[in-house]
Amino acid sequence: MSNCHLRFTCPCRPAAIVFVGAAVAVASLSASAAGGRAAGVVVQDGTTSVWRGAYTQAQADRGRSQYLKECASCHSDNMQGGDEAPGLVGPGFLAQWIDLSAGDLFERTRMTMPQDRPGQLSRAAYADILAHVFKANGFPAGELELPTESNALKAIMIESKPNK
User: Fold this and answer.
1) For a surface tag, which of 35, 54, 57, 143 has the fewest beta carbons within 10 Å of its beta carbon?
2) pTM of the full predicted structure?
3) What stretch of H or E contains 56?
């Protein structure tokens, strides 16, 4: 039996890192099957990308209805923004969120919107609206809905479009 405590100098540390990385990926995939899931393909660090299908088309459609009811009066029907509300589509919007997670955007939205009654929508409504925002910004739909759980949302990264 080894006396290894995963110290930095331990020769078995690289194997432990691979094991932990694999465990995170398996846990993320297991969570997907259980409902507390991150959408799309999970990479070694346990994250996925909005470019791998982070929402469903049906969810984005529900989100559009919610958006028109709850958000369009300030952000406009076309999501370009209003007098005091920023646009929610295009390079200016995306530049603020690149390299952050869907969880970051979800929580900011949930804590501050709608402006006259922040946090008053259900988590499902916020997720649906975010799915609509993702669709409007050209991120592809996938087979799993955008989750409502904070940890699962934090695993979905908002990234620049990958080069093909």
Assistant:
1) 143
2) 0.75
3) none
